[in-house]
Amino acid sequence: MNFKEQLKEYQTKVNQELEKYLKKQECPEKILNHAMEYSLMGGGKRLRPILVMVTYQIFKDDVQKCMPYAVAIEMIHNFSLIHDDLPGIDNDDVRHGKPTNHKKFNEATAILAGDGLFNQAYMVMSEDLKHTKLEELSEKLEVFSEFSNAVDRMIAGEYMDTEYEGKPITEEYLTYIHKNKTAALLRLCVRMGAILAKATQEDLEKLTRYAEKIGLAFQIKDDILSEEGQEEILGKPVGNDKELEKCTYVSQYGLQGAKEILEKITKEAIEELKEYGEKAEFLKELAYYIQNRNK
Amino acid sequence: MNFKEQLKEYQTKVNQELEKYLKKQECPEKILNHAMEYSLMGGGKRLRPILVMVTYQIFKDDVQKCMPYAVAIEMIHNFSLIHDDLPGIDNDDVRHGKPTNHKKFNEATAILAGDGLFNQAYMVMSEDLKHTKLEELSEKLEVFSEFSNAVDRMIAGEYMDTEYEGKPITEEYLTYIHKNKTAALLRLCVRMGAILAKATQEDLEKLTRYAEKIGLAFQIKDDILSEEGQEEILGKPVGNDKELEKCTYVSQYGLQGAKEILEKITKEAIEELKEYGEKAEFLKELAYYIQNRNK
């Protein structure tokens, strides 16, 4: 199976798992549940849950054990997209080629659908924790703690991004925003997979470095796509960042400069995987995928 | 010490505990942290954390053990107030006699400050869980699960309240909204206190009935105050509900009808406590306090 086929298989698996958690549609708040489903099942790439699964599988085969955490991270990711798109924040109309949540429903519903997905992530973890044997709890409690801390960082990063929109920014702050807004969650995914699989401290550190590098690569690529991507493929408007005078790697280093940093960082990420050979093949391909994706 | 003095002492204790968790003010996202603190320390009655503490103390003396959960519930309560006040939802300008979060800061900051407090509640619990001995974990995991489920109900209730604003509503749906929006969290507080103190199933059920009754009483009193309260004491505009054609107990049963239901429900709540004698004196007084408060 080549990378694309394998990626597709992972995406299908994630979607099947997410479907298990979709809320019922016959209750009084059915439109809220529909709004949550609209965003959660709205065509994301599922990179975050896949990162959890693939990292877990370097060490262990029973991938089902990490699925509640993979699902939870995708819920958090979608909550953050819904809130970021709101008129009060980025005011975006289109996401994954479809109307954003507040455009499809309304602002109140979108705020609460975001809150609902946010909380559901913790419900999913709490349900799993309640049914975990005592001797397996310590890794999961560590994961829960890292999870809530990474989400805290993501919110801080999003706040900084909003505050510095259209304002001059130092390189230090640009890095701070990316590190918190995007990279913290990707780093969390890899660490969750490794911790849940009881990886050694050394492995955990190596994989964390890989994660930090692809996290940075992901953001740089996002900035490049926002500048030169194709609107119909990307599913969102191109050139918006410039219009909003957003601070990005492209505005800071130019298009060519950003691409060079992206290539260097991707190589470094892959270097961290060399000891794992075949077992980390997918993570290696994923780094290239992040570098070369067109949406 | 009379009830008022004791209430004040509990409020001081809660405020001291909350202060331990205030986020630092020397980081890049300091305004976000300031916005979180603005709402969290903005003069709430602290009823929810006090309910946790007082219920816990019926059974056990070491109240410090339940404080992380008391703190977490106050954070969730404040997140929900910030989001409910947003222009996209209730569009309120004043809360506790001061500008609402989005009025004091801006909408983006308020959305993210709400998200931040929401997540911090889970951070506080995850930190406590990580440092709990294995033999004490099962109660705390039960509490974590009930916590996330109650927040899910609160969000559903808030959604329904928004959806039915200015529309005719059945009594069934009015009850559904109150049960979820307000009562679920108050019920959770009492249950958390009892579960953390390892109360018996019978005690848990009795106290749950008490909680459900004061939860309903709380909402009815809120509706009455929104109709006939004094703006300068209440710290928010009076008569707004009528203007917005909100569904309330007053619009449904009239002012006198609502007051009669409130009195009956309060009596029933107190009935549930009679076995605990002196130990439940504060909970009993609290029921009267909810019935008679003017803000």
Structure description:
- 2 copies of one chain form a homodimer.
- Chain A is an all-alpha fold.
- The first copy, chain A, has 13 helices and 2 strands.
- Chain A has a two-stranded antiparallel ribbon.
- In chain A, a hairpin with a 2-residue loop joins β1 and β2.
- In chain A, α8 (171-196) crosses α9 (201-228) and α9 runs antiparallel to α12 (249-271).
- The longest helix of chain A has 28 residues, at 201-228.
- Chain A is globular.
- At the A-B interface, α6 and α7 of A face α6 and α7 of B.
Oligomer: homodimer
**How much helical structure, as a percent, in the residues of chain A?**
over 70%
Encode the helix/strand succession of chain A as letters.
Answer: HHHHEEHHHHHHHHH
Number of separate helices of chain A = 13
Q: Average pLDDT of chain A, to the nearest integer?
A: 93
Distance between the termini of chain A: 23 Å
Which value, in Å, is the CA radius of gyration of chain A?
A: 19 Å
Shape descriptor of chain A reads globular
Strand content of chain A: under 5%
Number of DSSP strand runs of chain A: 2
Largest interface: chains, residues each: A-B, 49 and 49 residues
Question: Biggest sheet of chain A, open or closed, and with what strands and sense?
Answer: 2 strands, antiparallel
The strand order across the widest sheet of chain A is 1-2
Q: Look at the helices and sheets of chain A and give the structural class.
A: mainly alpha
